[in-house]
Amino acid sequence: MSRLLTIKDLKIEGYQEEKWNGIVHGVSLTLERGEVIGLIGESGAGKSTIGIASMGYARPGCRITGGSIEFDGMDLAQASDEELRKLRGVRIAYVAQSAAASFNPAHTLLQQFAETPVKHGVMTFAEAEVKAIELYRSLDLPNPESIGSRYPHQVSGGQLQRAMVAMAMSCDPDLIIFDEPTTALDVTTQIEVLSSIKNAIKQHNTAAIYITHDLAVVAQISDRIMVLRYGNEVETGLVGQIVQDPKEDYTRELLSVRNVRHDTMEHSDSDSTILEVKNISASYGNGVRVLNNVSTKVTKGMTVAVVGESGSGKSTMARVITGLLPPEEGEILFHGQPLSPSFKDRSLDLLQRIQMIYQMPDVALNPRQKVKDVIGRSVEFYTGLKGEYKKARVLELIEKIELSDSYLDRFPSELSGGEKQRVCIARALAAEPELIICDEVTSALDQLVAKEILTLLQDLQNELGMSYLFITHDLATVKAISDDIVVMYGGEVVEQGSKTEILTPPHHDYTDLLLSSVPEMDPNWLDGVLQHRLDLEARGVIIHT
Amino acid sequence: MDGLTLMILKRLAFGVVTLFVISLIISLGVELLPGDLAQAMLGQSATPETLAAFRKELGLDQPMYVRYLTWITGILQGDLGTSLASHRPVVDLLGGRLGNTIFLAAVSAAIAVPVAVILGMLAALYRESWFDKFISMTTLSTISFPEFFVGYILVLFLAVEFNVFPSIAKLNSRMDFFDQLYAISLPAITLTLVVIAHMMRMTRAAILNVMTSPYIEMATLKGMTRSRIIVKHAFPNALSPVINVIVLNLAYLVVGVVVVEVVFVYPGLGQLLVDSVSKRDLPVVQASVMIFASTYVLLNLTADVLAIISNPKLRHPK
């Protein structure tokens, strides 16, 4: 049998700032039938673009300008729209990153499943329904007979992602493109989906291109890995070779375990507690408790990491502390003094001492303000400095965040994601706070950029001695930066203590589940963790999927 | 659906308040106009004595707030009052006229809405093609001309030159449905041309807005044809703004047709309103305006309810 897919010297351009710029500069790859290749790289590496180009598709604003994409003897780069349309969904299928956005909200899962086989004339609707139930079952979806009659918003994120995998497999395609299918999921859900995908493609002997930025994830599922950067191939090799013996520095950098925190600081005594949260409970108006009897404290100069999955109440806790959401019960003490429940009743001085940095720097910065105005306004508002003094302070701050003064006159749109987050940090620093609440500040950033931001935050803490309350779902970040860890689940604190206490066994069962769910580079990790999970389940730990 | 019922009740209550405020404004407005019914009926040459006597007979000598109170008490008891000019009950005057106006509006809507939505879909399907531009240009031109101009142009070509349709839209009780339909074809076409552009352009824009969604890319990568993507994937999710514009135009078909009624001498509510204003016949003006206002309130409520129902998340809760 001939080779399934041969991409030769693929070149793709994107239209930006009124000219065509290269996105992919001549990448070649081959794929045998039933083989899985992982494409890995940071954003801007061109991995998604290459992935969907192997369906002969370029997103609006992009065009394939060179090279050939030979799929089973047919060059997709030269094929007509009608030829491509007949191929898509039937012989090559696509699984997108966000199932919630990629399922049409107006139709049921089954309608969308059956659309491909019925409209391509492969099956009747009744046959498609039988096939759907069979695939839903093999992907471990609950109630496979009836889940198809649900609308996308009626099932959970992990289920939806599996329903999309089922949809892609409706016509038994030869090739499936997985475009970051587990990135939007919580770690514990990610495992379930990952193992479903792995079993399903193995069972049907489907070839796949698996796109992700997470090397550990791709190591579980692929036979070979291609590392990409700025639209060029860095290196390609078998999984074992890339993970154990990478040839290029960049791959090594991606592999390197993040560890920013140097455990040099001693735990100070309880006198220097700056923030104490006592038994707070809160809800969002509809009567559903989001936080239930939560207590924790933050010590001067220390970093407390609050970790939990979506819906655990960790961001709500930040909203309660900042006074955006007054708690229903409990109190917040700042230096031993009770804080007013609502920020409206707090003095400027108190507001100044607690600052916040957000997940999305794009949204947190006013697009019409220059960097110097973003920082300058905060300086003037909190410290009252004006004119030359203000200018000097802004300059000082911009140096603190390791940017040059040439950035002062730029607009946010002229900054990269990491630079924007730095500006947000400078804005928080302008208030000379004692406590900074960091809400998923690195989640929207690439791995290497995230590492730089964490290093910067750590350096600033060493220099200025403020405390951080670090909210995150990413355990690698927790390991990298925290002194103390608070584990949250379902609005309650499951466990809290120093980093070593929490991270060394024995763990609380839920902490154990979280920790064991973080993908590791070892290609056999997935099978091991699934066994571990069965053990946990046998002990009565509830695992949501 | 409890929330929905509550919303409908709330909106109806607000609607009643709106109607009340409007009735006040109309009373004041008519009061501010120079002259009154007595003056209008007796003409310039009437002596002050006859005028005063006639006013007394009509009840116009009483202060405005007394007349308003009398009127609104009647309304609350279901009595629209009596026309001052013709001494006939307002209900009798309005009944037939309202039926005619609704008939014309319904016929125009039955042509305009499907044509506009289909044209909008086609324009989205063949986006940026000559077809799209042609449709855009044509509908924009018809909306840019004043209604009476469009009406007279149609009369010139379709009635005078080729004699296809009657130039005057006269209805009488001996006509059957199709004769009536034939009689109002020209005003219906005029109205269609006037309202089609908004609805068509909104359909096109709403569909194109949805076309950048990830689920559209997904449908493309499932190998669906572009026409299926537009009809089955984009349009159901673009319904809400389209419904709003359609309903706004339906309201216009009922309320804004005065000019067209005059051009085609059509016995609708609009003409009655204009006549009554010039005669200062307050009870008739009030009643007509109340009907127009209720139309707006009810149609807008319908639009909101439809927009909610068109959202699958609200139709099929978790």
In short:
The complex is a heterodimer of chains A (545) and B (318). Chain A is an alpha/beta fold.
Q: How does this model look, in words?
A:
The complex is a heterodimer of chains A (545) and B (318). Chain A has 545 residues and is an alpha/beta fold. Chain A folds into two domains: 12-255, Rossmann fold (3-Layer(aba) Sandwich), CATH 3.40.50; 270-366 and 431-520, P-loop containing nucleotide triphosphate hydrolases (Rossmann fold, 3-Layer(aba) Sandwich). Chain A is built from 21 helices and 20 strands. With 318 residues, chain B is mainly alpha-helical. The model of chain B has no long low-confidence stretch (mean pLDDT 85). At the A-B interface, helix 2 and helix 4 of A face helix 10 and helix 11 of B.
Give the secondary structure arrangement, pairings included.
The complex is a heterodimer of chains A (545) and B (318).
Chain A (H helix, E strand, L loop, with lengths): L4 E12 L2 E13 L4 E5 L6 H7 L8 E10 L2 E2 L5 H7 L4 E4 L3 H4 L6 H11 L5 H14 L18 H12 L6 E5 L7 H17 L3 E6 L2 H7 L2 E6 L2 E7 H6 L4 H7 L17 E11 L5 E11 L3 E5 L6 H9 L6 E6 L2 E2 L9 H6 E4 L3 H4 L6 H13 L3 H14 L16 H13 L5 E5 L7 H18 L2 E6 L2 H7 L2 E6 L2 E7 H5 L5 H9 L7 H14 L7
Chain B lengths: L1 H31 L4 H6 L5 H11 L5 H13 L13 H36 L4 H15 L2 H15 L15 H7 L1 H26 L3 H8 L4 H9 L4 H17 L2 H6 L5 H11 L2 H28 L2 H4 L3
